[in-house]
């Protein structure tokens, strides 16, 4: 290790879960380790050293042995008090998140967490406020903004490709099997209110930062939720009552940095069959052009090549609309020109901020706005009306 090297030790909780293991441990932290660390703007090389923590020692030990890791622990309280632990990463179920993050912040650890950051808005604001007062570098995973498709879409926004942006709409979802004839691919807690299940609670925190990142702040929300399928099969093979919403249909009003109003429509459903190229797609329409982005691809249609359709139910339409869109290139920083894994990219940004003592741009305040939007979305559905989204204040 040279004098310009720094090692950041990260207690990673939740790596036995699919997302925590695959995206955060393997494709992010271990990938950063294997590439020799992250180079900060000042030339410092930041190395990473994960410590796997959780409740299942056997699973932790298996993961550690698989990847040549030295430390595991089922005693999170002791890990929190260790002076050599710099960052606490949280990817447990939502019901455990608030207490774990609060404990880490009070122990003086920097925190990086999945979302939603808490079960209620009050808890989310409490975490953001506590972190600000303790001088913690806090980060919230905003992975969808780092997807190749949305990176390209954001690039078009920054270039002024759309002219005046008029609207945005998104479609997310797929058929989540009930577990009767085909095994369910989502855990049963997703569909139980008492366990924190709800597609609104799950997805609106994503839509919060996606809309903010592409368009601007959200001012109000109108949402209608549904529990389309009321019986599902749990992990033990037993039928249970699914009482959490499994679909949400929402309209948000947002504003661009230049003050232009934008109407955003978002459909989220675990009860739909996919007829689009990817599981999620976003379309932005503007006076100068439109673009559609998914997880990986982005296609655009500038004003100059926009067709002039005429509605005529008596004659077949001669336009091949799909062929009139142009594919947006990646122009990424990877050696092959691709855009790197978004989870890894945000981890690198966060680690650089920790090393520099700088506030991470996607902090617990942004996480609180996501919790707020989910909470207001559920309230809107319950009351059947549009609800304003007040600005959140985090006191230092």
UniProtKB/TrEMBL annotation:
Gfo/Idh/MocA-like oxidoreductase N-terminal domain residues: 9-136
Gene Ontology MF terms in the entry: nucleotide binding; oxidoreductase activity
Transmembrane segments: none
Ranges of residues in domain GFO/IDH/MocA-like oxidoreductase: 152-291
InterPro entries referenced in this protein's UniProt entry, alphabetically: Gfo/Idh/MocA-like_OxRdtase_N (IPR000683), Gfo/Idh/MocA_oxidrdct_glycsds (IPR050463), GFO_IDH_MocA-like_dom (IPR055170), NAD(P)-bd_dom_sf (IPR036291)
Alphabetical keyword list: Oxidoreductase
One matching Pfam family: GFO_IDH_MocA
PANTHER family: BCDNA.GH03377 (PTHR43818:SF11)
Protein name (record): Oxidoreductase, NAD-binding domain protein
Organism: [Propionibacterium] namnetense SK182B-JCVI
Lineage, uppermost ranks: Bacteria, Bacillati, Actinomycetota, Actinomycetes, Propionibacteriales
